[in-house]
Amino acid sequence: MTKTAKALVPAPYAHVWPMILASVIIFLAYRFFVLRIERRPMSELSSPGALRELGYGIAVGLLMQVFLFVALLLLGVYHIDGFAAPGLGMLGVVPFYVGVALLEEMVGRGVIFGISSRAWGTVWGVVISSAFFGLVHAPNVGANPIGVLTCTAFGMLFAAAYMATGRLWICIGIHFAWNFAQSQIFSSLVSGTSDGTGVIHGHLTGPVWLTGGTFGSEGSVVALLLALLGVVAVMTKMMVTGPRAVRTKRSALS
Hints:
mainly alpha
């Protein structure tokens, strides 16, 4: 079993199992917080329609990565060195990226956005949760101002998607697919970590503001623009269809 696990999980991802354990613990703690302290249904993670919303989020995250690397390729800073067939190593890191997405969305949107929006209103909820999401990536290797701003913009995108649906599944799907594709398809660093070799062997060369440097492609101004376009798209849709109520203690009791 140990040899099989090591074969499935490449050395750079040896921390995959602690991440899974941490995600389970956070999920149970979040469930306790929602059901026992807020005393409301955990509708943001309810199962009906979850697969459809998760799949939609994954598709959006993958498309955003394709747009990002096509743009970087056209700008002459992303260079393709070759290709490789998908291997078991890709499957081995799936739990890690799922764990990261679950953990950060439950904490960032489920807890921080929920508490701050309940206390000070939706606008402050978006500001606080998005700033938190950006700042927690600031200590990462190679972090730069554009990278932190990109993560902050993604925090806004996830908060907007949460408000649009009242659930976390689309946020989790986008989050997972963005990270996974960045590393396992396009061979890029992910927020300064996980230097994996993807299906497309490629590398970035050029100014840091365009390539992201050692922070990875998330530190590129192109990624920042993509995230901001995503925010505008979701907010525009909400102006037409209206937001779904995000369940908090206040909304559950009203």
